[in-house]
Design goal:
This protein has 547 residues and is an alpha+beta fold. The chain is built from 13 helices and 16 strands. It comes from Planctopirus limnophila (strain ATCC 43296 / DSM 3776 / IFAM 1008 / Mu 290).
Length: 547
């Protein structure tokens, strides 16, 4: 997993949500209005306006006390339907999971793997158990009430159908909150007890500060990327050793508060900026097998023309990363070969608050590979429980989304069909959203479905332009229409990747609040509002006597 989340464009996402909602509801209003005109003639317009006005009055006169009473009733019914039996499955999994997750090798070398395995298992179990139980409850509630005619007891009272849909969602969310709360608290205790003693130091939550990455080539000129050493996966770019080639990170808003107290080999404490790196070495020759590849941290201040070598280090276990401290007090060499003391914050941080750190390889014939997320400033770690319960909040939000979709589907189809509908909807969201994105982007050559169907029998390469004639223009036009439909489908499908925060917790990182947690909250709210309205109008327009 890449722990460098993409920036979340809050304003553009909100405007896009408004556009999609406007298109959907405008289409629904147009279709229903046309249907009324066809079936009732000119009087249909008046009836439609009257019905729409009544529905708006019902929505805006929702009673909190009635919603609370109905939600409480929903909670009680869910308990009577043996929803708490999920604890039995949960307890069985916990009793026997230790047999398969425990590693006889308790050495510190595999400490991170032990934490990753246990945390991933727990969060996946909580996600699937909660989703399955709540999907079943949410999808069978209203259809069962209609089948047993128990809903008539509520409908004949002053309770409105909007309140019924809203209360169903709130009641099932309450049940899921109780289930998830008990299981998550038990899971945290189980993790602390099951993780080997040698690995408990890895139960932490790193708080990274990411920088912007740029490169210099072997002559010292700026370039957009480093050297490609022949790896198919071009995630990392490489710099050449013993040249002017550099990988340069620029960190914004560096303050003294980012400094931490560290201890050297002699047991003395000092102020330092803590850096964590995952630099990958590519060796063009083995050389001395007893010596690893060396690299340097170089602090740059272009405004004052300062360049200070902060440390010369060796690549250790490049796959597990390393943590180093850049002392606040450093020694700089002047042009007259004299030494002077510089302060990391006062002398090397630019006026705009930015700090520039370059990484250079000192060994000739060797290469160092780096991506933007391979070096970051590591702030004081947060408690593991904090990031763990952030991941639990993500599961809870996914549960709210599942319940909302399930209750909405149950207002217009029967229970089994509602379960299949929502399960398919979520499955496509998980597996198909990225596929649709690639179809709509330029990542895959060859055009749309009809253009590809034309290229295959004609043995035309996907990079060759189509011949210009009316037939190919028609193909492109049809593909454009289909791409518009796929775009609308992509906007309707939720981006469920925001809810999956397992990678952060399992690898010891704090969950990003702005770019991961906030989008999960907004996606849930974005589906809750239209789904409640859709469920209300579906329940209002259906015959409650139908079985």
């Amino acid at each position: 997993m890449d722990f460098l989340p993409d920036p979340f464009p809050l304003l553009s996402a909100f405007l896009q949500w408004l556009a999609v909602i406007a298109v959907i509801f405008s289409s629904v209003l147009l279709i229903t209005f046309t249907s009324n005109l066809v079936s009732n003639g000119a009087a249909g317009a008046a009836l439609y306006g009257q019905s729409l006005g009544q529905s708006l009055v019902e929505i805006f006169s929702t009673s909190v006390s009635r919603c609370y009473a109905l939600a409480k009733l929903t909670f009680t019914e869910a308990i009577r339907r043996k929803a708490l039996f999920v604890f039995v499955v949960f307890a069985v999994l916990f009793m026997f999971a230790g047999w398969f997750l425990s590693d006889p090798d308790q050495s510190a070398k595999y400490a991170k793997d032990a934490v990753k395995i246990h945390v991933t298992f727990i969060l996946n179990v909580l996600t699937w158990l909660t989703m399955i139980v709540m999907l079943l409850l949410a999808c069978i509630g209203i259809p069962e009430d209609i089948r047993l005619r128990s809903i008539h007891t509520v409908v004949t009272k002053p309770a409105r159908r909007f309140e019924i849909v809203l209360s169903r969602i709130l009641g099932y969310v309450g049940v899921g909150t109780v289930l998830l709360g008990i299981m998550s608290a038990t899971s945290l205790v189980w993790i602390y007890r099951q993780v080997p003693v040698s690995a408990r130091s890895e139960l932490t939550a790193r708080q990274p500060i990411w920088g912007q990455l740029s490169f210099l080539d072997r002559m010292g000129n700026e370039t957009t990327a480093g050297i490609n050493v022949g790896d198919i996966w071009d995630y990392r770019s490489y710099i050449e050793g013993a040249t002017k080639s550099r990988a340069i990170w620029r960190f914004e808003n560096v303050t003294p508060a980012m400094l931490t107290t560290m201890t050297d080999e002699d047991g003395k404490t000092y102020e330092a900026l803590r850096l964590e790196s995952r630099i990958e070495a590519f060796r063009s020759h083995k050389g001395n097998m007893d010596r690893t590849t060396r690299f340097q941290y170089i602090i740059l201040n272009p405004e004052r023309n300062l360049e200070v070598t902060a440390a010369t280090l060796e690549i250790g276990d490049e796959f597990s990363g390393r943590t180093d401290g850049i002392r606040r007090t450093l020694i700089a060499e002047t042009k007259d070969n004299e030494s002077k003391t510089v302060d990391l914050i006062n002398d090397l941080v630019a006026k705009d608050g930015s700090l520039t750190i370059a990484v250079a390889c000192t060994d000739p014939g060797q290469y160092l590979g780096m991506a933007r997320s391979d070096l970051f400033i590591r702030l004081p770690d947060a408690p593991f429980a904090v990031t763990f319960f952030k991941a639990i909040l993500g599961i809870w939000l996914f549960m709210v989304l599942t319940v909302t979709l399930g209750v909405t589907a149950s207002t217009f189809v029967k229970g089994p069909f509602a379960i299949m509908t929502i399960f398919t909807f979520l499955t496509v969201s998980i597996t198909g959203r990225e596929f649709i994105r690639k179809l709509l982007s330029d990542e895959w050559k060859g055009g749309g479905a009809f253009e590809s169907a034309y290229r295959i029998p004609t043995y035309m390469n996907d990079t060759t332009d189509l011949p210009s004639n009316p037939g190919t223009q028609l193909i492109k036009w049809v593909d454009w229409i289909m791409n518009g439909f796929l775009w609308l489908i992509q906007q309707i499908l939720p981006n469920v990747s925001y809810f999956n925060m397992t990678g952060y917790v399992a690898n010891g990182f704090d969950v990003d609040n702005w770019n991961t947690l906030l989008p999960a909250v907004l996606v849930t709210i974005g589906y809750f509002i239209p789904c409640v309205l859709i469920g209300y109008y579906c329940l209002r327009s259906r015959e409650l006597e139908a079985k």
